[in-house]
């Protein structure tokens, strides 16, 4: 639900995701889950694209982390990796995935 006035507050409070704009009423901004810093409705489209890209990154990282850590456990269980090596690889992969997650999700408008 997108709303900007007092009349929108019941719907904003009941919505799964509620969005208010920068120049909305105080109560609408307070009830909304997200307050956009612009009054342009095109920002909602960019917000949706950003959220979809973020969820895609989270799912991808989760699968990669689970697969990598599972392989470390398996290799450690069969005796191929020493516990110290496994711990080092786990901590290094945590740092690498965290660093890779800081990349921008959207391209700059100048690059398009």
What do you see in this structure?
- This protein has 112 residues and is mainly alpha-helical.
- The chain folds into 2 domains: 2-35, no CATH class; 53-100, no CATH class.
- The chain contains 4 helices and 3 strands.
- It has helices at 9-14, 26-31, 42-77, 83-100, and strands spanning 2-3, 19-20, 34-35.
- The chain has a 3-stranded parallel sheet with strand order 1-2-3.
- Helix 1 (9-14) links the parallel strand 1 (2-3) and strand 2 (19-20).
- The longest helix is centred in the middle third of the chain and has 36 residues, at 42-77.
- It is elongated and about 65 Å long.
- The protein starts with a strand and ends in a 12-residue tail after the last helix.
- The mean pLDDT is 90.
Short summary of the structure?
With 112 residues, the protein is mainly α.
What labels describe this entry?
mainly alpha, three-stranded parallel β-sheet, elongated, 2 domains, 112 residues, single chain
Structural topology:
Blueprint: E1 2-3, H1 9-14, E2 19-20, H2 26-31, E3 34-35, H3 42-77, H4 83-100
Parallel strand pairs: 1-2, 2-3
Helix pairs in contact: 3-4
Portion in beta strands: 5-15%
Strands of the widest sheet, in order across it, are 1-2-3
- Main sheet properties: 3 strands, parallel
Instruction: Quickly give the structural class.
Output: mainly alpha
Our Rg estimate from Cα atoms comes to 21 Å
Number of helices: 4
Question: How many β strands by DSSP?
Answer: 3
Low-confidence stretches: none
- Integer count of domains: 2
Helicity, in percent? 55-70%
Average predicted confidence as pLDDT: 90
Q: Can you tell me the overall shape?
A: elongated
Cα distance spanning the termini: 30 Å
Give me the strand/helix succession. Answer: EHEHEHH
